[in-house]
User: Fold this.
Amino acid sequence: MIIDFNNFYQQIAKNRLSHWLTTLPAQLALWQQDNLRGEFPSWQKVLKKFPEIETEHIDIESQVSVGQEGELPKGEQAKLGNLLEKFHPWRKGPYKVHGIHIDTEWRSDFKWDRLLPHISPLKYRYVLDVGCGNGYHMWRMLGEGAEFVVGVDPSQLFLCQFETIRHFANNNQNVHLLPLGIQELPELKAFDTVFSMGVLYHRKSPIDHIMQLKSQLVPGGELVLETIVIDGGENDVLVPRDRYAQMRNIWFIPSAAALKVWVEKCDFEDVRIVDISETTVAEQRSTQWMKNDSLTDFLDPKDPSLTIEGYPAPKRAVIIARNPEKRLS
Assistant:
């Protein structure tokens, strides 16, 4: 299997994203030229070694499980397990692939279960997942009946992990990951729902990020915005001096109330805070499939309510908002 984007171009040529073809192929051609070195070529060699097998056993509604124990001979299953480990670290999941449980760092299903009761039904919708990681939530979006799901994330490793799952999901053509950042997308105004989960605090300008998300939505479309927050009122924002929970590139961590004001300032309507939850070591931890440091290592060992730098420990909020039907004057 070689990663290319021709199938995606063929798909969008026939749907509401066809205007994207004026810019996207040239962008991705440049990306492919720039990624012929580093680890990406070796990861593509791993992808080529996967067995060609179709399965009737795909569950993307209650979990992400493709294939079933026994469909591959034991020797082939063991070989597959070794190949999947080549894509360490697996951060978002969990996944089951032909009886192999990929126990990822994040129990991303926890987040999905928190937000699902609050979002508009995804059935028949075009959905964009910004900063999608390896695509776990994209499969759950498809499992909720979305018609077409696109994720953007610049990571080579996440792209290879996503293509791995899609390969064993009978090469599903209703879900695609593109190795781009949100700032590289034109104003498509084509998606019914746009998700941004775990991205905002990495952006130098959070207001610009919210406006970029808005520019991808159809009139009346829904924004689902999830990010780290602190306690406080409408004017409370944490700006870490260096790292936050050992993460670099963290710029602004607002309170949920401040975040709601930011979204309203970007002319969204019906802005709602639907969930605020502390991040626990049950949801984020080291595993066999992600052996690097994780949340336990990022918290103050004497006071887990603080990060190792002394900031409030991670707490995450979900905000849902509606793009106006008509542009405000």
In short: The mean pLDDT is 96. DSSP finds ten helices and 17 strands in the chain.
